Task: inverse folding
């Protein structure tokens, strides 16, 4: 940043006024002129877009200045239901703005793509989360973007796919074997999650957010819990902080192991799927024996955790990490030594570093393309601040790079699990010998606004929440990392052959449900 | 690589014993499977899984059925790519309104005789998503359901027990 230019905090102080009771980062409310100044500044500054979400008469954007470590939310009241689009300066905003339009009826002025996104015309209602939803709706054909040229043909795929996968539609335009354009159409698994959370107590809403994306149930539950705890100023028992991290790392390892195997299987190398599938099963069974649920759903709740680890848990997990270390490394060597397998993964599905940065992609998609951000490090949260681990970064941006990032992350997470087990505060013992679960009670009759940035296996989750004065959820927006990764898949496949799409897709493994909300 | 193969050869299979058919599922299926279908299916089932709005939790556990520990194919049960090859639709999720049409069309593309299994809490009654503007709710609201496998998500052993009941009932139908 050149001298004389605003910092993010500096600009927000100039164009907006701070909102009290928004934690831990500031929120500013601006006016239309201030919003336009923001857009102007986004054109030159390298601040990344963390999220954009609507309310019945307002739009919010979360931004981060990476170098300065500043995170902030800016809000624009839009009583007439219109706001100037951020999409020209932050293309990652396009789908978020289309979603805000579908759900709240907010029009993004100047958006380059004004087609509906989550609304397919089947809900029987338009703008369901607006103050006055319009009853009745009809499905209209969705106009796909054009690709014209000699010898081009289209291949429609989905929403029901050939495998055991979530539903979505992919429209390929190909020239022979080569993909000229891929366009995604998502929204098939939109469940109205944000609407369902409204008016619920944080504890009830947590059960819904735990089912936003089953593979990231722990991470989304942590993000929601942290946001609520920030909003209400609740301090949770230290042991709960460590137990959450323990579950989050188990979830990360389980997902990476399964996906590394699945990517290799998509290159017809089923051996690694069979072997890594067994390792994944070991992790899930250990999770089950420690926390009573294979995916550890509903174990992280606002205020702490719903139950402590089983007494035999720590020993079981030490054994697990030892066994995984023993068995994982030789399998990685198999991957590394198979030229015919790497022939499929090397230089396939490249995401350039520039594109990953423009879309603010996180997780292994970002880290394989030079973007080394990890919410556990920056802005960072407990207990990771006290733990030693590395964030692997590569720049090749191909399927192989994404695989290697995940391999390295498995190794790091195994180390983290051991560190957490060794350093976790002990079980508090009550005078009568009864040990209460590490759970703080939630204050009643208090409101506030909070947000959290939490690293799921897929990347950074942003969750923003407003708790109303009656203690129920007024508005909650959980932004899955997939929002900023799905658009890059369209770019990654361009120029590759159709047969490499499963490989590229699995190497991203974006969430449909997490994105569709 | 060769070391791995050698160890697999000498170490014996990692596959676990069958959990046996679920009694509750057998009871639910009583009378659902007739002689005609028995003759058609023998002792195998082809399953087309349809995610009708699930959070992906059920899919993760259905995937696990294919790993060497559960190895569902040893029972003659396999997952197929097309509804046209399927005997069973294994449906997950609270049937989002955006997926209801695709689910119906998948069912229409499945040849008779066919069964529908509602897998998981959402597919059975909408789960935590019941009552949303964006969900139809139970699979039963869209398709006739023959078997329900509860759980959020059901464990692989529970899925297996339910599917084995379907196979068992099918093989012993009068």
Result:
């Amino acid at each position: 940043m050149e001298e004389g230019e605003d910092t993010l905090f500096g600009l927000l102080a100039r164009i907006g006024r701070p909102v009290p009771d928004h934690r831990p980062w500031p929120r500013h409310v601006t006016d239309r002129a201030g919003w336009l100044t923001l857009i102007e500044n986004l054109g030159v500054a390298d601040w990344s877009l963390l999220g954009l979400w609507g309310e019945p008469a307002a739009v919010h954007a979360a931004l981060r200045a990476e170098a300065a470590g500043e995170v902030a939310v800016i809000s624009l009241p839009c009583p007439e239901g219109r706001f100037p689009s951020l999409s020209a300066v932050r293309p990652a905003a396009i789908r978020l703005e289309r979603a805000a339009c579908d759900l709240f009826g907010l029009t993004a002025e100047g958006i380059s793509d004004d087609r509906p996104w989550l609304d397919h015309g089947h809900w029987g209602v338009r703008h369901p989360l607006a103050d006055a939803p319009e009853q009745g709706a009809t499905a209209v054909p969705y106009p796909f973007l054009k690709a014209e040229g000699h010898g081009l043909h289209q291949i429609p795929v989905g929403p029901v796919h050939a495998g055991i996968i979530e539903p979505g539609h992919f429209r390929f335009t190909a020239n022979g074997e080569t993909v000229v354009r891929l366009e995604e159409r998502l929204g098939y698994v939109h469940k109205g999650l944000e609407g369902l959370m409204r008016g619920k107590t944080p504890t009830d809403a947590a059960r819904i957010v735990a089912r936003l994306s089953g593979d990231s149930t722990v991470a989304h539950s942590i993000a929601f819990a942290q946001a609520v705890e920030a909003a209400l100023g609740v301090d949770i028992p230290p042991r709960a902080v460590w137990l959450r991290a323990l579950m989050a790392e188990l979830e990360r390892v389980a997902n990476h192991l399964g996906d590394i195997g699945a990517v290799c299987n998509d290159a017809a190398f089923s051996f690694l799927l069979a072997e890594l599938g067994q390792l994944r099963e070991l992790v899930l069974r250990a999770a089950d024996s420690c926390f009573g649920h294979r995916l550890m759903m509903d174990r992280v709740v606002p205020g702490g955790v719903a139950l402590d680890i089983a007494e035999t848990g720590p020993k079981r997990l030490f054994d697990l990490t030892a066994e995984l270390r023993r068995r994982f490394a030789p399998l990685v060597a198999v991957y590394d030594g198979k030229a015919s397998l790497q022939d499929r993964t090397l230089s396939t599905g490249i995401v350039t570093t520039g594109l990953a940065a423009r879309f603010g992609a996180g997780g292994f998609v970002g880290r394989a393309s030079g973007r080394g951000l990890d919410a556990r490090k920056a802005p960072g949260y407990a207990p990771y601040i006290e733990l030693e681990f590395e964030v692997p970064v590569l720049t090749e941006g191909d399927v192989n790079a994404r695989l290697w990032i995940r391999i390295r992350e498995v190794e790091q997470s195994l180390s983290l699990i051991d560190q957490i087990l060794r350093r976790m505060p002990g079980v508090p013992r009550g005078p009568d010998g009864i040990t209460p679960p590490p759970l703080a009670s939630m204050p009643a009759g208090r409101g506030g606004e909070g947000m959290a940035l939490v690293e799921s296996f897929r990347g950074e989750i942003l969750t923003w929440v407003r708790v109303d004065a009656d203690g129920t959820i007024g508005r909650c927006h959980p932004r899955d990392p997939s929002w900023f990764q799905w658009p890059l898949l369209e770019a990654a496949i361009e120029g590759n052959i159709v047969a490499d799409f499963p490989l590229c897709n699995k190497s991203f493994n974006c969430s449909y449900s997490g994105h569709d909300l | 690589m060769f070391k791995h193969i050698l160890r697999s050869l000498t170490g014996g299979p990692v596959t676990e014993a069958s959990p046996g058919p679920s009694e509750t599922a057998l009871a639910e299926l009583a009378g659902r499977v007739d002689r005609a279908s028995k003759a058609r299916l023998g002792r195998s089932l082809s399953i087309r899984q349809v995610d009708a709005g699930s959070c992906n939790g059920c899919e993760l556990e259905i995937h696990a059925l294919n790993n060497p520990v559960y190895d569902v194919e040893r029972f003659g049960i396999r997952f197929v790519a097309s509804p046209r090859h399927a005997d069973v639709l294994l449906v997950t999720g609270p049937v989002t309104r955006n997926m209801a049409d695709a689910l119906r069309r998948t069912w229409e593309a499945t040849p008779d005789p066919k069964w529908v299994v509602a897998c998981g809490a959402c597919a059975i009654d909408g789960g935590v998503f019941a009552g949303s503007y964006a969900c139809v709710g139970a699979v039963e609201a869209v398709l006739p359901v023959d078997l329900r496998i509860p759980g959020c998500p059901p464990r692989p052993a529970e899925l297996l027990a339910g599917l084995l009941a379907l196979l068992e009932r099918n093989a012993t139908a009068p």
Observations:
- Chain B has a mean pLDDT of 88.
- The beta strands of chain B are 45-51, 77-79, 88-92, 115-119, 147-149.
